[in-house]
Specification:
Length: 684
């Protein structure tokens, strides 16, 4: 991670240490004294404890304590991965109930679920841990990990998150926790950034597409969370509607029973006596336990007489209705705005003679809380795991409490179960409104976890994983491509170098065998070739010397001398053709070797050469034509003695010079008297 120890890198390291230390101190302070509200939540305590371990590991890492850092962080990594798996795995696979069992002694009265950090915090802690454990490879993967963490935290803490109806189970709870994680993140980022220089281009290549994938993952995650919340809302609404139906049907049953009584009373000419009233109303009282009062209110001379003459109070009598229905109303339902838990509903039905004359009213008072209790005895979604509250204008009428830890997620359903007929309503048959009752359902964390889809969490995890893979692939691909390019470049250089060396070697070997001025084989080459021809006897040699060459040098200069040397060499080569090998023997001397050439043949060749030079447009400073003298020698008996043969040719040449130059002289072996000479020597 720390590539070099330049002053800049040292500064980065110090800053990284400072930030990590700050995170460590803040985590300890939050756990102990700083924020009791934060520390009181078990999930926050877990996050802070885990962050503390990460901070210790990171601190060791910034101090180059790689071993101790790994020792601290590997077990933590395993723990975090298990927690993440628990968050993402379906409840059927890994039931939290079952998982909580071994830890019950530790976590009671809360459950393991209460202690599990929210998803966002788990993900950030895992990414931080992996970032440190990657160590020397961290410059490959850490930038994207940091980017992902940052986006996650931002999404979780910005106002944007509050627009999204996501379940609180999955999100960070406190700003202090976020601050600790942010400091750790900053500390690690500063520690890594100094090593970015060598791979900056590759980082850029990998970072953009994979960050885009991270953003898309986050967007998809939020979308799926909205979907999951929508499903939960739907479940809640369905529960509310079922209760609404039960309440409405209960109320309608009562109203119909009351209407039967009304019809019966309208048949009687006089209000019933007290005994008769008791007898008549007994079924109602027995059947509807929430019936508080039931009265027969007489009307005398067009005025309502109140209190009623015929009253059947419940054992605990309720207050009188504050409002009295108008005489012409067919049926009136009134909500009596008493303190919410004792709130009543009054139903009033007129009692008329067949001619239409109003005799009085049948007035019933119902206790709403008793009615609700009767219709909702057992919570439908598992006893103790759902809190249900029935409210009227935000005032509690009835509450069914839960046993577990309440999740911060609710669904509210307006209950349009009890039609409300206002007393001032002239059109008696029209329902103007419903009693504004509201039902609020709140599951405990266990139930919420069971009900809520795991899809958003799984999508988030997989999306981040794929982003990381994409990033690493692009990064490595770019790294490899640039390394490949560098390799190809150095290969090209190497190939060029090899070619140059080969050419130089060829030149060198050519120079070793040839005369640089004339381009003809040199003495070494001539000798080597003659050795290879040693079996091709008889073998003849011709030694050629330019006559008075010194004069050319002296009178026309060395450059002209060189030019003449080259011209004679070229001319001799053209004249000789394939009849033998011509080479420069030294100075202004040339040597011709003719394999399988008798002296006569060699003599003819020599003569051809002499004539060619003589006739060429080559001249001395005074216009005298340039001539050459040639000495010829031949050996027909093995073994070949080249030195001796050349010496013999030299003797013949010497003779040619002394006999006036521009001539061919043959060497005749005077010792053994043998001569291959068939033809007389040529002269000018
Ligand atoms: N320009 C030039 N001169 C050379 C080269 N090699 C030898 N010479 C000259 O060739 C001359 C040879 O002269 P000599 O051996 O005295 O003979 P010569 O003048 O040719 O006279 P003869 O051989 O007696 O006809 C010398 O002056 C050398 O300096 C060369 O490569 N280039």
């Amino acid at each position: 991670m720390w590539y070099t120890s330049t002053p800049v890198v040292r500064h980065y390291r110090l800053l990284s240490q400072g930030l990590t230390l700050l995170a460590l101190v803040l985590a300890v302070a939050s756990l102990t004294v700083l924020d009791t509200r934060v520390a009181s939540l078990p999930a926050n305590q877990t996050t802070l404890a885990l962050a503390l371990i990460v901070a210790i590991g990171q601190w060791r890492w910034t101090r180059k304590g790689v071993f101790t850092s790994a020792l601290v962080l590997w077990p933590l990594c395993l723990c975090l991965v298990t927690l993440l798996f628990g968050t993402c795995a379906p409840e059927d696979w890994l039931s939290l109930e079952r998982l909580s069992e071994p830890f019950r002694w530790l976590t009671t009265p809360s459950t393991l679920l209460d202690w599990r950090p929210p998803l966002v915090e788990l993900v950030v802690l895992t990414l931080l841990t992996l970032g440190i454990l990657a160590r020397t490879r961290s410059s490959l993967g850490v930038p994207l990990l940091h980017m992902s963490c940052l986006l996650l935290l931002l999404l979780d803490q910005t106002p944007l998150h509050h627009w999204l109806p996501s379940a609180a189970l999955l999100h960070a709870h406190s700003l202090t926790v976020t601050a600790v994680l942010g400091l750790l993140l900053a500390g690690q980022w500063v520690g890594v950034v100094s090593g970015w220089r060598p791979t900056r281009d590759s980082l850029r290549r990998g970072l953009w597409p994979s960050t885009l994938l991270v953003v898309m993952t986050l967007a998809l995650w939020q979308y799926l969370e909205i979907q999951a919340d929508g499903e939960l809302q739907y479940l809640g609404q369905r529960e509310g509607r079922a209760m609404e139906e039960r309440l409405a049907s209960e109320f309608n049953d009562f109203r119909h029973s009351l209407q039967h009584l009304q019809v019966f009373l309208e048949q009687s000419p006089l209000p019933p006596s007290t005994e008769r009233w008791q007898h008549l109303t007994r079924p109602l009282r027995d059947h509807f336990p929430y019936l508080a009062t039931l009265r027969y209110v007489e009307v005398t001379g067009g005025n309502v007489r109140s209190p009623a003459t015929t009253v059947v109070p419940r054992p605990t009598d309720m207050p009188q209705p504050a409002a009295v229905p108008p005489p012409e109303a067919q049926i009136t339902t009134l909500a009596i705005d008493a303190p919410a838990p004792t709130m009543k509903i009054t139903l009033s039905l007129p009692i008329r003679r067949p001619g239409g004359k109003l005799l009085g009213h049948l007035a019933a008072t119902l206790s709403l809380s008793a009615m609700a209790e009767n219709m909702y005895t057992h919570p439908p979604s598992g006893a103790g795991s759902l809190q249900v509250r029935l409210t009227y204008h935000n005032r509690l009428i009835k509450e069914w409490p839960m046993e577990g830890h309440p999740a911060s997620w609710t669904v509210s359903v307006p209950l349009d179960a009890i039609p409300l007929h206002r007393p001032d309503n002239k059109a008696a048959t029209v329902d103007t409104a419903y009693l504004p009752l509201e039902l609020t359902l709140r599951p405990d964390t266990r139930l919420l976890t069971r009900l809520r889809s795991r899809l958003p969490a799984v999508t988030l995890m997989l999306g981040l994983l794929f982003s990381q893979f994409l990033y690493l692939t692009l990064f490595s691909q770019h790294q490899m491509a640039s390394q490949h390019r560098a390799l190809a470049r150095s290969n090209g250089d190497l190939r060029r170098e090899v070619r140059t060396r080969h050419r130089l070697q060829q030149q060198l070997s050519w120079l070793a065998d040839h005369d640089e001025l004339t381009g003809l084989p040199n003495r070494r080459h001539l000798q080597a070739t003659a050795q290879t021809w040693r079996a091709r006897l008889p073998l003849s040699v011709i030694l050629v010397d330019i006559d008075h060459f010194k004069r050319i040098n002296d009178c026309l200069g060395h450059a002209e001398g060189d030019r003449v040397l080259k011209a004679v060499g070229r001319l001799a080569q053209e004249t000789l053709g394939d009849d033998g090998l011509l080479g420069r023997y030294g100075g202004e001397e040339f040597l011709v070797i003719i394999p399988e050439g008798r002296l006569a043949e060699a003599s003819a060749v020599a003569e051809r050469l002499r004539r060619a030079v003589r006739q060429a447009p080559l001249a001395h400073h005074d216009g005298t034509p340039l001539t050459i003298s040639l000495g010829v020698a031949c050996q027909d008996q093995a073994p070949l003695d080249l030195a001796r043969l050349i010496q013999q040719a030299d003797q013949a040449l010497y003779t040619a010079k002394h006999q006036g130059r521009d001539r061919v002289e043959l060497f005749v072996d005077t010792v053994d008297g043998a001569s291959d000479l068939d033809t007389p020597p040529f002269t000018a």
